[in-house]
Amino acid sequence: MKTVLSSSETTSSGCSVTHAQNPCANCDVRSRAVCGVLSDSELSKLARVNRRRELEAGDCIFFEGDEAEAYYVVVEGALKLYKLLSDGRRQVTGFLFKGDFVGLAFKDDHSFTAEALGHSRLCQMPRQKFELFLNESMPLGRKLLQVATNGIVSAQEQMLLLGRKTAQERLASFLIWMSVRAEERGEDYSRLAVPMSRTDMGDYLGLTVETVSRTMTKLKMRGVIALPDRGVVEIINHDLLEEIAAG
Description:
Elements: E1 2-3, E2 17-19, H1 40-47, E3 51-55, E4 59-62, E5 70-76, E6 79-84, E7 90-96, E8 101-102, E9 113-116, E10 120-126, H2 127-136, H3 138-164, H4 167-184, E11 191-193, H5 198-205, H6 209-221, E12 225-226, E13 232-235, H7 238-246
Parallel strand pairs: 1-4
Antiparallel strand pairs: 2-3, 3-10, 4-9, 5-8, 5-10, 6-7, 6-9, 11-13, 12-13
Helix pairs in contact: 4-7, 5-6
């Protein structure tokens, strides 16, 4: 893994960071991102300090313990968030998709690592300059409060998932969540693009990769899902999937 540095040059890894005169004007995720609540004049000001970052699979925006210097919006692609334990084990704590906000830190450093799952583009906003907008925009403050609240709710749901649910219930819950997120992005919520590996799924669900694979096969044999292509899960029976998730 490698960190993609903020620069206007192309890095040795082939990733690039570029300034844009007004990246907000034709942004595909503006309506879903936190900055969507800003007025046109506020967006114009924000655009002057924005940078676009290009990442490939395995590139890290930041590592756990790094100083929190910027906020980010996912414009394209997907990220995984994770923490490493002292013995080397990994716990994936979340996945982010187009329009999602990342970088909230309750201290001055990041409490997790953020890594690209594949080719991704991010909008990077310097922390201090972005926080000036918070002092001037009540809608932006309310939007960030919503983001933080959603993060707490997601953490509570994952605690329930890890502590009380069986392997089938965990995987079914995860696929339902993926379906809901796809629908929010205006994508097909039955034929899911799944950018994360089964190892990533296992580290998120508290399962081994073998258990994830076996459980996928069981759901397929029950006619709940189909696996037509690599990185694709098709939900055949939404009602049954929800029943399994509920336990």
